[in-house]
Design goal:
The chain has 180 residues and is of the alpha+beta class. 34% of the residues lie in helices and 11% in strands. It is built from 7 helices and 8 strands; from the N terminus they run H-E-E-H-H-E-H-E-E-E-E-E-H-H-H. The strands form 4 sheets. It has a two-stranded antiparallel ribbon. InterPro entries: DNA/RNA_pol_sf.
């Protein structure tokens, strides 16, 4: 990577990332977050610790009463893209990331030639702005273009924040209870 992309100068809200504490979390302690809000957030995570996975194997796949997920398409044509050229480094990343997902039982080798999407490996940065890893992503644009539109509107972030902010145990709800 070019030297200019290796680090980013921290701004006023830059994180000071201490090592992981006994909870296993690495906290991004920002100077613009007051200690009470941070404490409320840490308590929320502590109380709900069991819902967070610590590895890919803990994530698993959904196996509930609704059944397997399906994607309804507008047509029955194959959605296939010829492979793009990848550098040896990108091929190594692809192999590493797919092996992790396969070993965790999240993906299985395909036995169909009807669907194939190209991959991309964008660089991943930590809070300090350093490039540390690469993500393995599939470009799902061709699949998205062939998917039947959902009849439900996607909520905008403000709607989600309104719901989360009033949920019991959320940092803002906790702060509101303390102030009353």
């Amino acid at each position: 990577m070019p030297a200019a992309l290796e680090t980013v100068a921290p701004g006023p809200a830059a994180c000071s990332t201490p090592p992981a504490d006994k909870s296993g979390y690495t906290w991004c302690e920002r100077s613009d977050i007051d200690p009470e809000t941070l404490a409320g957030f840490k308590e929320l995570l502590r109380v709900n610790d069991a819902v967070f996975a610590r590895s890919l194997k803990e994530i698993g796949c959904y196996d509930g009463p609704i059944g397997p997920a399906t994607i309804e398409l507008l047509h029955d044509d194959p959605i296939f893209e010829a492979p793009r050229r990848h550098s040896p480094r990108e091929k190594a990343i692809q192999q590493e990331k797919c092996s992790e997902l396969r070993d965790a039982g999240i993906i299985v080798p395909s036995t169909s030639g009807r669907y194939a999407l190209n991959s991309t490996m964008p660089a991943k940065k930590v809070a300090e702005g350093n490039w540390t890893d690469a993500r393995y992503c599939c470009d799902a644009s061709p699949l998205n273009n062939a998917t039947k539109p959902d009849k439900y509107r996607t909520p905008v972030p403000e709607e989600l924040f309104d719901k989360i902010g009033t949920a019991p145990g959320s940092p803002s709800a906790t702060a509101e209870r303390r102030s009353t």
